[in-house]
Write a structure and sequence with these properties.
Blueprint (H helix, E strand, L loop, with lengths): L1 H21 L3 H24 L5 H11 L4 E5 L2 E4 H18 L7 E5 L4 H12 L3 E4 L6 H11 L3 E5 L3 H6 L1 H6 L3 E5 L8 E3 L1 H6 L32 E3 L8 H7 L4 E5 H8 L14 E5 L3 H11 L3 E6 L8 E2 L9 E2 L2 H6 L2 E4 L1 E2 L4 E2 L15 E7 L13 H6 L1 E3 L7 E11 L4 E7 L3 E4 L2 E4 H8 L5 E9 L8 E8 L7 H11 L8 E4 L14 H6 L10 E5 L4 E4 L2 H9 L5
Parallel strand pairs: 1-8, 3-4, 3-5, 5-6, 6-7, 9-10, 10-11, 24-25
Antiparallel strand pairs: 1-2, 11-12, 13-20, 14-17, 15-16, 17-19, 18-19, 19-20, 21-22, 23-24, 25-26, 26-27
Helix pairs in contact: 3-4, 4-5, 11-12
């Protein structure tokens, strides 16, 4: 009997060992799937009893339950959940009275990190209005373009961007957009002060009837912003690598959010004896390179890094829950069932999907790079882009696996290994990432062609060693008889574009190669990069210190490529 039991146990152990070797992440996959199933079940049960429970409702529930609990810590000031409720009441009443806001209106917010940003979000939610969040770095025509896309009725800006607002004020007035500046007084025609109106407003609760038509599916913001979990948030006006860990120690921070660039900046600071003296246990974010990942853990201690992949306009998300270095996520049996996806062949030269004789996309085998497409279903819908049906349609891909199906084009090239880990490879199409921001090549190109000397421009991203994403590069075709004025070019770009969108390199090519449909060839330019030893065209590099573009020498190129110079 004992021998039989021993044989069974030994056999079971061997089987489990073999299963573990073949499926080393099976247990983690099951636990992750179980958690997702439980969350989905709880959400469905919750929505049956309270179908219109929104982010605002959750905040109000917390404010009532824990009014004295710290909500936001900002520059030595502490704001409780109760403070947030009262302040957002004042904001809502001031905007309803002085801006005439009503349920369904859209308001553009153009301000940096500060508690008032949160009060505005909550106040607008109490009125049933959706905020459109403007990138704080945009100026001039890109700012106008963003505002036009949102159909905003009102623009609220802080004093730090007043000059940028005044520059486009005539166009804003022409569009009928009212502009409020966060200040006590404002003498400029067309600008109205808002801070004094908020201070004078009542902090009494507003009637829920003001947002009676808001449902769980109503946009919280035209740029996704998540709700509250009941925890305390430490907010900084601006990121500082030198002060980061001191702030974490000072406020006993346990979780930090990042984009890849932030952790690289932290790793680039001088090493110190206090590097591991902190309480941070988890960091969550995306865009972290494998080498920075390892260096961060080696230097700052045992911290759980949770990398994820997703986008505000996407219909699926991935999470690297096991913590494999370098992976943006992991797929498992549950994910494949509830959020179907495929990796398909993509031709970078033609910039189009590869299809077979039946007109279907060609899927890539495990371990090879392909374009990530996620299936559009009732469970995973694609909401599209506000007031832009053409762009919405361009993101859709039909006849992928079978005739009549519909997928969403992520624009990202991925690779999935045999264990299901997903690795980001590159970005395709009309955008690339630099300094943690998305850069639209068409937007930068349109700004460049506004210069009198430029006939045409071709903007793309080039890879740099030791840098996240791709650095912007522009190949310019000049008008006959014109030359590039480097100082004027810098002035134009710095005035019209946020710094992350500035072309780091410029190439002058007066006889550009064109496709059969008279489009500039981008693939070859990306491949050639900015190496002056192989490129005979004039090359320039941005020089912010001198406020110009300087000729790119071989020594400068070598310093960049060796890592001695960081952009």
């Amino acid at each position: 009997m004992m021998q039989t039991l021993f044989t069974i146990l030994s056999g079971s152990a061997v089987i489990l060992l073999l299963l573990y070797r073949k499926f080393p992440y099976f247990v983690q996959d099951v636990m992750h799937a179980r958690l997702n199933i439980w969350i989905s079940g709880q959400r469905a049960k919750f929505l049956q009893t309270m179908p219109y429970f929104t982010v605002l409702d959750r905040f109000l529930e917390l404010a009532k339950k824990q009014p004295a609990k710290p909500f936001i810590i900002f520059e030595d000031e502490l704001f409780t959940y109760g403070d947030g409720d009262l302040q957002s009441n004042k904001v809502a009443r001031a905007l309803r009275q002085h801006a005439g806001l009503r349920e369904g209106d859209t308001v553009a917010l153009f301000l940096g990190n500060q508690p008032l940003f949160v009060w505005l979000l909550l106040g607008l939610a109490k009125l049933g209005c959706a905020p459109a969040l403007m990138n704080y770095g945009i100026r001039a025509s890109p700012l106008l373009q963003c505002l036009s896309c949102t159909s905003a009725k009102v623009l609220i800006a802080d004093a730090g961007v007043r000059g940028a607002v005044e520059e486009v004020l005539p166009s804003l007035r022409q569009k009928g957009i009212r502009v409020f500046i966060l200040g006590e007084a404002c003498s400029s025609e067309g600008l109205e002060a808002l801070s004094d109106k908020i201070q004078q407003a009542s902090d009494q609760p507003l009637s829920p009837q003001l947002r009676a038509q808001v449902k769980a599916t109503t946009p919280t913001a035209y740029f996704y912003t998540s709700g509250t979990t009941g925890i305390t948030v430490v907010l900084k006006r601006k990121f500082s690598a030198s002060q980061f860990w001191a702030d974490c120690r000072r406020h006993n921070v346990t979780v930090i959010l990042y984009i890849g660039e932030i952790l690289r900046y932290l790793c680039n600071t001088p090493a110190g004896a206090d590097d591991r003296r902190h309480r941070v246990r988890v960091v969550v974010g995306n865009g972290l390179r494998a080498d920075v990942w390892r260096l961060f853990l080696q230097r700052f201690g045992k911290i759980r890094i949770t990398e994820f992949y997703g986008s505000s306009d996407g219909n699926t998300a991935l999470m690297n829950y096991p913590g494999r270095v370098g992976a943006v996520g992991k797929v498992n049996f549950y994910h494949r069932r509830v959020a179907p996806y495929v990796l398909v062949q993509f031709d970078p030269e033609r910039e189009e999907l590869v299809r077979d004789a039946y007109g279907l996309c060609v899927q890539v085998p495990t371990g090879e790079t392909g374009l990530f497409l996620s299936k559009i279903t009732a469970r995973n819908p694609f909401g599209g882009y506000l007031n832009n049906p053409e762009q919405t349609e361009r993101k859709k891909v039909r006849d992928v696996v079978e005739k009549g199906d519909l997928f969403l084009n992520s624009g990202d090239l991925m690779k999935i290994d045999e264990d299901g880990f997903v690795f980001f490879q590159d970005r395709v199409g009309d955008t690339f990432r630099w300094k943690g921001e998305n850069v639209a090549t068409t937007e930068v190109a349109s700004i460049l062609t506004m210069m009198d000397s430029v006939l045409d421009s071709n903007v793309y991203g080039v890879q740099l060693p030791g840098h996240e994403g791709r650095a912007g590069m522009a190949t310019l075709t000049l008008k006959e008889g014109k030359t590039l004025d480097c100082s004027e070019t810098f002035a134009h770009i710095s005035h019209s574009l946020p710094q992350f969108a500035w072309p780091q390199f410029i190439r002058i090519q007066n006889d550009p190669e064109l496709t059969g449909t008279f489009k500039q060839v981008k693939f070859r330019l990306v491949k050639e990069g900015f190496d002056p030893s192989t490129i005979r065209d004039p090359l320039f590099i941005v020089d912010p210190g001198r406020k110009t573009y300087s000729p790119l020498t071989q020594d400068c190129y070598d310093s960049i490529w060796s890592g001695k110079v960081k952009l």
